[in-house]
Amino acid sequence: ITLPELKLGMQDILRTELSEKSIEKVMNHFDTSGDGKLQRDEFVTLDKLRSKIDEVKKEEQLLVFDQFDANNDGVITLAELKLGMQAMLSTELSEVSVA
Q: To bridge 42 with a disulfide, which of 12, 38, 62, 77 should be the other Cys (CB 3.0-4.6 Å)?
C-alpha cells in the first residue's frame, strides 16, 4: 500500500479528511521495512490497531446507550432520547460558556 492509497483508505474508514503529515506519521510508524509502502505484515499490524480502536468506539457507544436508557430495559424511548439529548446539550453548552 502506497502513501496515497493509505490516505484514501484511512479517510474512507474514518470518514474524515486527514492531513498529509498525519498520514506520513502513520506510514512511517508502520512501514518497518522503510520502503515507503506497507507490506502485508505491516498492514496486518495497522489493521489490528484499527480493530482495537473500533472496539473502544463500540464500548463508548454502549456507554452512551446505557446513559440514555434510564430504566435499563435495553430500549431507548422517545422520552429517554429527549432527556439524554438535553443532558448532553446542556453539558456542552455549559462547557462552552465556561471556556
A: 38
